[in-house]
Design goal:
Strand content: 35-45%
Strand order of the largest sheet: 3-2-5-10-7-8
Number of strands: 11
Radius of gyration: 17 Å
Helix content: under 10%
Distance between the termini: 15 Å
Order of helices and strands: HEEEHEEEEEEEE
Shape: globular
Oligomer: single chain
Largest sheet: 6 strands, antiparallel
Number of helices: 2
Structural class: mainly beta
Length: about 190
Amino acid sequence: KKIVAEINRIIREYRNLPNQASYDFVGLGYPSGDPHKAFDAGASTEISPDNPLWSELSNTEYVKIWYSDNDRHSKSHNVNNEYAMMLFRFKMDAREDVIKQIVLSFEGYGTAPGGNGFLIEVWNHVAGAWQQAQASPATAEDSMVSITLTSNITNYVDADRYVWLFARTYNPSNGVTAAVLYCDYVKCTIQV
């Protein structure tokens, strides 16, 4: 009964595509308490969503990820053997047990002395690990890279209904030349 009520609520909200909802950062920004959040950091390894190294984007930085318009947010990190990273939190309107598919997409590129490119991963809160890695082409041009989840979805939607997307440069800084991650647009689409 609860599942039917949840599906009906989502259908009313998304009449044009009743079984699909898309989330992005259009119109959102710090510190209004918005359900979706974006952060950046630099580190030598992939860090968990609750790590204190993450810094939330400012209002002017959020604006740069609102649309796919070549106005990019960038994170430059110039510490030897450390990567430039970004983290995106999406709040699901639907309960995790009614979600049939999640598609997380990141548009941007990465540059570093060892080569260009970036990779994205999704947080598995059950395993406590980043998983489902997808890499971009090794170019300094925008690429849209996506992760599609169709099984074990409850492992990727936490108790607060958050899904976490991680992005980092494919290669680290060498301490002289920075690793820079550029984000033009990011979104999450679900199907119920």
